[in-house]
Amino acid sequence: MISPRSIASIYVVFLSMLCIGEALAAPITVELPNQQTELYYSKAVRLSQILIDAQRIEPDRFVLANHLALLDKKSDMAAEKKDIFNQLEQRASKPNNESLNQSSQAILDQLKQFTYLRRLPYRLDTDWARSQISTDPVLAFQNENAGLHFRLLQSTRSTQIRLMGAIDKPTLVPFKPHWQLSDYLENHHVNLLSGAQKSLAFVIQPDGEMTQLPYGWWNGKEVYFAPGATIFIGLRSLAWENEELNLKIVELLTHKVGL
C-alpha cells in the first residue's frame, strides 16, 4: 500500500513546451551540495534536463536516492515537526503509562537527530521523466522577476538501512538482499520496546515512497527493502489513539535528508 505523499505549496508551473518563452528570464538555480556545485538556467527548464546535467556531474549516483526540493519558507518542514514533536512530548509525559512514555521519548529523540527537506513529488529518473510529457514537468516562474532555487541531493548507492522507532537499539545496519524485518531484528539483537506496535511497521524507501509492512506472526508479509531504506516501528495504538501520529511521523520521514 502506497501512502499519498503530501505535496507542498510550490512555485512550479506545469507548462507545455509551446509555453516556454524568452520572457521567462528569471534564473533557476539548482544546488548540488554533495558535489559542491550548482546548475544555473536563465529560463524555464524541463526536469529531465536538470537530471541529465546533474548526472554528468555525478555519474555514479544512486537514482533511487535522488531528493529534489524547492527552497522556500516551508521547505524545512517546521510546522510538521512542531506538531509531531509536541504530540510525542505529551505522550512522553502522560501519567501512569510507562510503556508509552518510554517509546514516545525514544522516537522523539531519534526524529530530532535528522534534517528534513520537503521533497517534490517527482520520480527523479531521467529515462522515466523523458518517457512522456506528464512525467517531465517544466520548472518555471510565476513572474519575470522571481527566480527559483532548488536543491538536488545526489548520492552513491548505500550499503546500509536504518532501523528506528520504538526499539531498544535504533541503528544503521548492513543491507542484506532478501532479508525481511525479522531477519534484521534477530541478527542484530534489536528488541521492541513495550510501547511498540507489534504487528505493523513502515518502510520508507530512498525515493520517499512508503509501504506498510505487516510483520506479526499472523499477518506477516514479505516486503523488500532498497539499499538506504528506513524501517520505522511506531507506537502501539490502543483504540486507534496513536494511529494518526504514526502516519504523520512516517510522512515526515519521507522528507528526511539522507540515510
From TrEMBL:
Q: Which domain of life is it from?
A: Bacteria
One Pfam annotation reads Caps_syn_GfcC_C
Q: Where is the Capsule biosynthesis GfcC-like C-terminal domain?
A: 172-257
Q: Which residues form the Capsule biosynthesis GfcC-like N-terminal domain?
A: 27-139
Q: Kindly provide the name given to this protein in its UniProt entry.
A: Capsule biosynthesis GfcC-like C-terminal domain-containing protein
